[in-house]
């Protein structure tokens, strides 16, 4: 028999991780070898643990699943990435694809779809939540007929990192230490964010971060 698929599981809710682990470890060809409580921990674990597949939540502290996926795709191009999320949202779906993911599964149907999504990922086959294909294709074709492009991201990767940490209440000094940049650089990025998004203060940035799925309300 082939060795089981080694899975890294990242979600900031312990009970969710426990339930998902029970589902995956119950299959002979899947085994969870590492668990992370946020995106930054997931990236660190993926670099020091032999894993084949990363299953990531989208909204997590410090670094979101989307941010972690972009980092993992750069550092470990052979790693398969799958999103397990509560967000049935077209924008998140396309962001997940841009970030390097090969699948997108809703937590509400994880017991039904997650195992097959993991196997599809390892076969290099995309997995889209059942029922969503028609709506996504229709939306894409409508946008194409109008001559619209797929929605662009409003902020850069670095700005998104800083926006998330600002919204979580970190000071410029703390953010600088987490991202290995100076507090002055953090302040410059923060000012650029306020100007680019047409906002005035941390409260408005926090509301934007919630709408963007960077933090949970």
UniProtKB/TrEMBL annotation:
Protein name per the record: DNA-binding response regulator
SMART domains listed in its UniProt record: HTH_LUXR, REC
Residues found modified as 4-aspartylphosphate: 57
InterPro entries given in the database record: CheY-like_superfamily, NreC/VraR/RcsB-like_REC, Sig_transdc_resp-reg_C-effctor, Sig_transdc_resp-reg_receiver, Tscrpt_reg_LuxR_C, WalR-like
Protein origin, superkingdom: Bacteria
Pfam families referenced in this protein's UniProt entry, alphabetically: GerE, Response_reg
Keyword Nucleotide-binding: no
GO biological process terms, semicolon-separated: phosphorelay signal transduction system; regulation of DNA-templated transcription
GO MF term set: DNA binding
Keywords: DNA-binding, Phosphoprotein, Transcription, Transcription regulation
Domain Response regulatory: 6-122
Membrane-spanning ranges: none
Residues of the HTH luxR-type domain: 148-213
Database matches in SUPFAM superfamilies: C-terminal effector domain of the bipartite response regulators, CheY-like
């Amino acid at each position: 028999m082939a060795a089981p698929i080694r899975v890294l599981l990242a979600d900031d809710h312990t009970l969710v991780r426990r339930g998902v682990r029970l589902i995956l470890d119950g299959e002979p060809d899947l085994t969870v070898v590492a668990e992370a409580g946020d995106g930054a921990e997931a990236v660190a674990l993926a670099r020091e643990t032999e894993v084949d597949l990363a299953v990531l939540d989208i909204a997590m502290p410090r670094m979101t699943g989307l941010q972690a996926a972009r980092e993992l795709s750069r550092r470990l191009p052979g790693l398969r990435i799958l999103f397990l999320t509560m967000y049935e949202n077209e924008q998140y779906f396309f962001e997940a694809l841009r970030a390097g993911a090969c699948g997108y599964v809703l937590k509400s149907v994880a017991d039904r779809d997650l195992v097959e999504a993991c196997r599809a990922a390892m076969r290099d086959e995309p997995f889209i939540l059942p029922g969503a294909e028609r709506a996504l294709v229709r939306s894409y074709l409508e946008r194409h007929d109008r001559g619209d492009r797929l929605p662009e991201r409003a902020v850069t990767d670095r700005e998104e990192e800083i926006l998330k940490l600002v919204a979580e209440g970190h000071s410029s000094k703390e953010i600088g230490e987490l991202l290995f940049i100076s507090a002055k650089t953090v302040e410059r990025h923060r000012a650029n964010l306020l100007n680019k998004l047409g906002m005035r203060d941390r409260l408005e940035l926090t509301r934007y971060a919630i709408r963007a799925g960077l933090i949970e309300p």
